[in-house]
Design a protein that fits this description.
Two copies of one chain form a homodimer.
Chain A (H helix, E strand, L loop, with lengths): L4 E7 L1 H4 L7 H11 L3 E8 L3 H14 L2 E5 L10 H8 L4 E3 L1 H13 L6 H4 L3 E3 L3 E3 L8 E6 L2 E6 L3 H19 L4 E10 L3 H7 L1 H5 L5 E8 L2 E10 L2 H18 L4 E3 L5 H12 L3 E5 L5 H7 L8 E7 L2 H8 L3 H7 L4 H15 L3 E7 L14 E7 L4 E7 L4 H21 L1
Parallel strand pairs in A: 1-2, 1-3, 3-8, 13-14, 13-15
Antiparallel strand pairs in A: 4-5, 6-7, 7-8, 9-11, 9-12, 10-11, 15-16, 16-17
């Protein structure tokens, strides 16, 4: 088969009332895409028999592979298994290895076992059972009229285990997949339409099997070049040549030529230079530190943070002068300057970031409306301060402040 | 009409290759659900003409309202608008108010304007144009064969503005929607199947129009009771009676009877008691502080945090004894005890949380494998320390540590 198309069906009322954000599909799509399997439809439906049957029929009509997550829990709202039996015209039978796995899990956790847990070892008779090493509900692989269906639990780390251990390797074995190559450039400081204008000639000459996508991500913009083809090496070479041209065209605004977070970009830079950093955070409340430490190995360059949410902590932990707070307020150039100086002294790092702002929805004044934020970055010799006026909600203002601040430090280190 | 059904279509390759997680649909579903409009299908497709046309046809066949986001940007990969013209058999015409809005946005930001920006004021002739106060791409409302279609930009805060300003009020006006009442209980410390066992009799007597859903969320479990009906007051009364029974049955494991985050639960408790808190964080790197300060008004009870990622910072900022680190290691009961004592002294708060652990993927040893975490919570008089052995990846281990730590402090304050 030349091009495998896949649909992902996620089952669960919680997805439809907005109580849960679906992160499973994104992860699955990433994995499939990396091996050249195109996910062309993702569908979320509720724990409703008719809707599940309808979705199975619709998706198998347009896809070779239908991956299904969710609805396999031990409680009464989970009806995926009986509905699968109906769709595949089969019945539930006990699966011995799954029963042993369920018993083992409960024994090892010292928990008593209930009938509803034992029932997790009932599987549709025609399914190939896939072991779930991280939980009680197994995965199930079905084939019907040339189409493949795989049902997996919705708990993210259980689904990931089943995908990695069995589904992805088997799909790679059963299908001859096309090569797909992505290369991503992350830029900052220029809007989508201005970049597009600069890339008119570049985009015009892209061959049909290579696409350019614009993906805004907070204050940054990702440009993703994707090539498809039969031969991986030749696609990679083609994409690589074009990607170098893209980099040259956007050299002045490039943050990184890898698809990594700003925390990773900054971390790589610090590691490369053998430098350390820390943060002094007011309005971001520790978010910058948490993003930086989300990167494995960050202890090599990140020492710590003074989260000085209250003004008295800015004085006590960072040595900000009470007179400065009095004269200029907590959200001011003078305050973030002193926070930065204090952070460098306290944390004994080569570089530091200091931020103070009003994230909303309350706390704004006519002079300093919601969204006012001051950022200082630098080292003992040189500091840069910048002011932003953000226009979003509290969460987005906070996240944008974190991205801006990390990017400012990145630029200062490179200068 | 008695029950309006809605489909949400999100358009964009970035959703299908897993580069972007779809948060728009969840927000939209929440808003619609709150007004009694049931979202029964959510579909994500790529920027592909055939797939867009197919999705419009399929979703309008099963839904009264089809909400569409994405693909309206100024760049070449955005093909939603011409495809909508094709589907509705119309053509693009210039819309004067939108043109003025685009010009105004560019002028007020001091940016030069490009043809591709001006083109954002081109709209399908049969559409009712919806003003976008936060960006250049307007919303568009279509009606065809008794079905409603609304196309909106995919940028979250622009989509939200259009929904709030126009789409939701108009849907409320045009349709007689059923009443939907949700009540959510958040529990901790008991697995899904054990709770289900305790609720067998309760679930058995639930009427058909009231459903109970189990929604795992990190170490917590949410139980959501949802009632539907014609009369809002009577549905609310019915749900309320059942919800009280549910609360009584699960009183020993209840965290909160509202659908709020653990950060909000803890914040509300501190406000109610007039107490303050702070954190000393090693392995969570500021995540606990950032979750607590994500709640508006948290400055009333949150003073700050010492993020002591490096051991020398535990000594310097929190007064942890070098001998303690030497004898027991950074991830130990003795260290988190001293971190807690140090945090209370430094931050001068009523309560504090201290955490230290090994989040992975590296850093584990046979004695302290990845996932080992020590938590201390308390005040000057009383502290509680707990050890967890987590079994997930770095991100999930960190988030679970944050939830566990906040929940421990909640329990201690209540005791």
């Amino acid at each position: 088969m030349d091009k495998i198309t896949t649909s992902i069906i996620t089952i669960g009322d919680e997805l439809l009332i907005g109580q849960t954000i679906d992160t499973n599909s994104a992860w699955m799509a990433q994995q499939l895409n990396a091996m050249g399997i195109w996910v062309h439809r993702r569908v979320a439906i509720g724990d409703i028999r008719d809707d599940i049957l309808d979705a199975l029929a619709k998706e198998s009509a347009v896809s070779d592979v239908v991956l299904i997550t969710g609805g396999l829990g031990p409680t009464a709202d989970d009806i995926t298994k009986p509905t699968l039996c109906e769709y595949f015209n089969t019945r539930l039978v006990q699966h011995q290895e799954t029963l042993e796995n369920v018993l083992h899990i409960f024994e090892s956790r010292g928990l008593p076992i209930l009938q509803r847990n034992l029932d997790q070892s009932l599987v549709p008779e025609t399914a190939t059972v896939i072991e779930n090493k991280r939980g009680t509900a197994p995965g199930m692989w079905f084939e019907k009229e040339g189409k493949i269906y795989v049902s997996m639990p919705g708990v993210p780390h259980e689904m990931k285990g089943i995908m990695e251990d069995y589904v992805l390797p088997r799909l790679a074995k059963d299908f001859k997949t096309p090569a797909v190559i992505h290369q991503t450039l992350v830029t900052s400081g220029m809007g989508e339409s201005f970049i597009a204008e600069r890339l008119v000639a570049f985009e015009a000459k892209l061959p049909a099997h290579i696409k350019l996508a614009y993906l805004p991500s907070y204050s940054l913009l990702k440009l993703r070049l994707t090539g498809f083809g039969k031969d991986k090496l030749s696609v990679a070479a083609e994409v690589s040549i074009l990607f170098h041209q893209l980099k040259d065209l956007l050299a002045d605004i490039t943050v990184t030529d890898q698809d990594i977070s700003i925390g990773e970009v900054l971390g790589n830079l610090l590691k490369e230079k053998g430098k350390t950093m820390g943060t002094a955070e007011s309005c971001t409340g520790g978010l910058i530190a948490s993003w930086i430490t989300a990167v494995p190995g960050s202890s090599a360059y990140f020492k710590g943070s003074a989260v000085t949410y209250a003004n008295e902590m800015k004085v006590k932990m960072l040595g900000v002068k009470p007179e400065t707070l009095q004269a200029h307020g907590a959200v001011s150039e003078a305050t973030v300057q002193e926070m930065l100086t204090g952070a460098l002294a306290l944390l004994q790092t080569d570089y530091a970031i200091a931020v103070s702002g009003i994230m909303g929805p309350d706390g704004g004044t006519p002079e300093k409306p919601v969204g006012t934020v001051w950022i200082a970055v630098g080292n003992a010799k040189r500091t840069v301060t910048v002011k932003y006026q953000l226009r979003y909600d509290r969460e987005r203002n906070t996240q944008m402040t974190a991205v801006y601040a990390m990017n400012e430090l990145r630029k200062l280190i490179l200068e």
